[in-house]
Amino acid sequence: MEESRLIIDLAIAFGAALGGGLIARLLRQPAILGYLVAGIVIGPYVLGLVQSTDNIQLLASIGVVLLLFTLGIEFSFHELKRIRNVAIFGGIAQLVVTTALGMFIAMFLLGQSLHEAIVFGFLIALSSTMVVIGMLFDRGETNSVHGRVMIGILLLQDIAAAFAMFILPALGAGNGSLLPTLGVAFLKAGVFIALVLVTGIWLIPRILRRVALRQSRELFVISIAALCLGSAFAAYYFGLSAALGAFAVGLMVSESDFAHQALGDIVPLRDLFAALFFVSVGMLIDLPFLAANIIPLLTLVAAIILGKFAICSGVTRVFGYRGKTVPLVGAGMTQVGEFSFVLAELCLGASVITGYTYSMILGSALITIVLTPPIFALTTKLCVRRREAVQVTSGGKEQPDIEAPSSSNHVIICGHGRVGSNVARILGQLAIPYVVTDLDPKTISELREREIPCVYGDAGNQKVLYEAGIENATSLILAIPDPVAVRLALDHARRINPKLDIIARAHSDSELEFLQSRDVSEVVRPETEAGIEIVRHILCRLGVSEATVEEIMSNQRRICPM
After folding, report:
1. Through-space distance between the first and last CA atoms of the chain, rounded to whole angstroms
2. pLDDT tens across 440-485, in order?
3. Which of 87-96, 246-255, 407-416, 552-561 has the highest mean pLDDT?
4. What is the CATH number of domain 411-524?
5. What is the pLDDT of residue 387?
6. With helix as H, strand as E and coil as C, how does 451-486 read?
7. Among the listed residues 269, 274, 249, the one whose alpha carbon sits nearest the alpha carbon of residue 259
8. What secondary structure, in 3-state letters, does 173-222 show?
9. Alpha-carbon dihedral of residues 445, 451, 456, 461, nearest 10 degrees?
10. pLDDT band for position 145 (50/70/90)?
11. Cα–Cα distance between 272 and 162 in angstroms, integer?
12. Domain boundaries in the chain?
């Protein structure tokens, strides 16, 4: 009977997760929000469909382990190095200042002890990697300046959260002094990490190579699962967090030749158990408690949103970013993240925080996740209306001015990424004059070293366009993944030079419709063009005549919005 009860509870949990996730996506909300609401609905405080949450939470803990394991594999030292100043130093500053703000709220407004206030402050300092990256991906802004800044800070937060898993529980261990307790925790972690490094360098690559030589996907998946869960058990044996062990081994796997295959095989399993984890968290949200404490809860939510907005915006500005990048980073980081759920549950079990604090953290996380997309959308609209200019400084260093070509037939390329750099290379080969505008200080420095005309700034800035010679240009190429900057650049360009030939890229149907409504000369959708080029190659390989291929391609471009 117990076995059948577990199966029934799992069926209810996964069914609710499916329904909640679908509804959330239909409403353009993060799927994680749907999982949380689904857990609330089937939990003991609403419908009570799941009789025992213990079994669900036990299986959900596997989701946490898999989540940290894949985070370790996905962690990009290259991306962190690319924006290391704002990511590392800015991320640390954001965590410290936000934690201090949380401690102030916890001690003076909620009357908590010092240890509990430290935990509370750190938990509200974390933002949601899943929510932010999903939101940026849906909007086509992952490669925008504010997107790169947010992802860099989130990487730093994820590292801090992983190592906090063995520090925070130590705050509630025993009645002795805090420093000896933390010293023992760090010693255990050091020994464990040393063992992980040894096995990661000498043992893990050899094991994966031998398994891969068998050319059996089943064995490879089993070996990855064994490494993940085995490292979790080893960390638990050392008195550390199981999730920390999985994260450490994930980092080791990421440096091997088998990282991509391991990630591809384990992600579906991770998503399955992660959904179960968020459903289990939803079951623990006490709606009657939240209703009885609605005023303190809403006050806390307002303090978190306003405080994190101000702190994240301020840190971004301190590290040299200006204009719309500053408020957009602040607006995107206002929520409490998914690792706060993990750490809150861990600290509750270690008696570091009380049930009251735990419920307040869960409630504030749920509300801030709901509010993040509309806050970000509203901030974007305000930035468009205000037509704010974005300028980036490089540590206060003055950059030498490079004048735009004096000729009146040059091309302006906004953005020197993968698309813009290819366009610039071909124009250079044909000796066609061009000017590049870009927000990346490193890119501008490299262009200046190569004596390529460039302007340091955002295409949405009217002054930047004037510096690039917009009034005398023949063409404007908008190759930037930032819808706000594209819209501002279009407005300025059309007003300054109505006859300008404008070519822009679009990432979504709504963006495509907007660009076409503004009389853009040509709108290119990279996905559509990629599909057309693949068809071209297939037809040529099959012996279809070149004339027929060109006719088909022309028809496809007329039928499909590019």
Report:
1. 58
2. 767 888 888 888 888 887 787 788 888 888 888 999 999 887 777 8
3. 87-96
4. 3.40.50.720
5. 54
6. CCCEEECCCCCHHHHHHCCHHHCCEEEECCCCHHHH
7. 249
8. CCCCCHHHHHHHHHHHHHHHHHHHHHHHHHHHHHHHHHHHHCCCHHHHHH
9. -160
10. confident
11. 21
12. 59-273+286-386, 411-524
Q: Specify whether the CB–CB gap between 20 and 35 falls below 8 A.
A: yes
Residue pair 126/102 in contact by the 8 Å Cβ criterion: no
Give the type of residue at 196: V
List the structure tokens of 159: 């590292």
Rounded CA-CA distance 484/439 in Å is 14
Q: How far apart are CA 289 and CA 292, in angstroms?
A: 5
Nearest alpha carbon to residue 459 among 398, 388, 558: 388
Angle between helices 90-104 and 145-167 (to 10 degrees): 60
Scanning the structure block, which residue is given the tokens 């946490």?
Answer: 64
Looking at residue 466, what is its pLDDT? 85
DSSP 256: S
The reported pLDDT for the residue numbered 95 is: 92
Q: May I ask the CATH class of domain 59-273+286-386? A: mainly alpha
Written as one letter, the residue type at 387 is: R
Of all residues in the chain, what percent carry a pLDDT higher than 70? 87
